[in-house]
Amino acid sequence: MSRSPREVARWVLGIEASAITGLLPQLDEEFDRAVEMLKEVRGRVVATGMGKSGIIMKKLAATLSSTGTPALFLHPAEAIHGDLGMIAEGDAVIAASFSGSTEELLRLVEIVKRLDVPLIALTADTGSALARHADIHLRTAIDQEACPLNLAPTASTTAILALGDALAMALLEARGFTPEDFAQLHPGGRLGKRLLKVHELMHAGDALPGVTGDASMREAIYQMSKKGLGVTAVVDDAGKLLGCISDGDLRRLLEKGDALVDRPSGECMTPSPRTIDRDQLASAALKLMEDHRITSLFVCDDDGRLEGVVHIHDLWRLELF
Hints:
By secondary structure, the protein is of the alpha/beta class. The chain is built from 14 helices and twelve strands.
């Protein structure tokens, strides 16, 4: 009796999940050695494999590159027909083959060994030619493929994919790779935007509205209008932040019927406004503004001198959340 599509799907997912958990008892000191080797590489990590394993190794190269380890994918067949120059002194090679006997890969391994480039092999068979020639062997044995015929590479490629991810993440942690490092390599993504620093977004220099405490409110209003942020900073002669004047402050003063324009800004300001350090994340600035229901944060150095201002509209435009 044939199985329903969902029954097949559950069966496949169960086998592939077991393939991944089955890697846990296979981890040994060779994995630690592999991470240490890759950490010391001064060139690039060259990932290689044929067929479905090759596709998985392309993904490993991309994951390594995006997490601070320069890497590339080299097709074994293309390598022996001219692309071997992609491997240089100081590189390391990671080769994946479930059987460990892929002909094109073994021909490449012979050349890699002559170049004296370290080799890490991911195979299921510790006695395979690829495993024997490797400096480090990481075992990826499985019980069965997630294929009713037990033929199509499925659980085997899932195991290689998972072990590759484990290798990349262990290397990331060993290198001390930070969210800020990740953001630099992913500036166009949402995470990259969330990890932008305040100083990358703040209005500074001529774009920064500011007056001294003895300047008239006429000048403060001019600054607010000219710079278009709905707020101006009030500073002392040394540039230290004293307070700020916002659109809301103006409305409250006008409601009192004050003769406003000729009064000193220092008399009308809100003292000690909220500030943030220039190296704080944009996401932290947004949270601070939303928590305190304000639209601007002033950026000051350790001595309290004004460096810039960041407006909530600048952060909303990033679509941080």
